Amino acid sequence: MSDGHLRATYNEIHAIIGKASENIAPWKPDLFIAIGGGGFFPARVLRSFVKHPNTGKNISIQAIGLSLYEELPGVTSEQIGREVVRTQWLGPESRALLGRRVLIIDEVDDSRTTLAYAIKELQQDVEEQLKLLPEAERDAKRTKFAVFVGKK
User: Fold this and answer.
1) Rounded distance, CA 116 to CA 140, Å?
2) What's the whole-model pTM score?
3) 104 forms bridges with which residues in the sheet?
4) Which of 151, 152, 101, 105 is nearest to 126 (CA)?
5) Cβ atoms of residues 115 and 106 within 8 Å
6) How many CB atoms are closer than 10 A to CB 23?
7) Residue 16 DSSP SS3
């Protein structure tokens, strides 16, 4: 750690996520949503420890692609670092969020911008889907969200 960086092995990271899973498992998530490529690694490791609450099997991982700092086609230099750009979204699969306990997973949360965008947009998608249901069924189908971030 002489240069200010902590170097951790895969096994050490696996153990850290395993320890964090002790706080996540009681919440009983039944779907993981990984933000971008970086969210897949902690999601994949986390599902080694946290199993589906009803089946005991692996929890499915869905992906959304969001970019805040990348240079992408059609993105101006003024947008980079200020505006979240969608590169992949759930689309019609957002119906599958209804009534679920969804854990949103990312590897880093340095500004909360991307994470806040993901939560807001996913909640809006759920609300749109709830409007299609009879009013009496909406509360039971409301999605519960939580967040796991590898590093702040």
Assistant:
1) 24
2) 0.87
3) 33, 147
4) 101
5) yes
6) 9
7) helix
- Pairing mode of beta strands 31-35, 101-108: parallel
Per residue in 34-92, pLDDT (tens digit) is: 998 789 999 999 999 999 999 999 999 999 988 766 666 665 566 565 677 777 888 77
Sign of the four-CA dihedral 25, 27, 31, 36: negative
Please state whether beta strands 61-67 and 31-35 pair in parallel, antiparallel, or not at all (unpaired).
parallel
Catalytic residue among 106, 110, 125, 139: 110
What is the Cα–Cα distance from 122 to 79, expressed in whole angstroms?
22
Q: Smallest Cα–Cα separation from 45: which of 78, 86, 14?
A: 14
Joined together, the tokens standing for residue 18 give 């395993």
The Cα diameter of the chain in Å comes to 60
97 with 129: CB under 8 angstroms? Answer: yes
**Which contiguous run of DSSP H or E holds residue 128?**
helix 113-130
Is 109 annotated in the active site?
A: no
* Domain architecture of the chain: domains with CATH: 10-149 (3.40.50.2020)
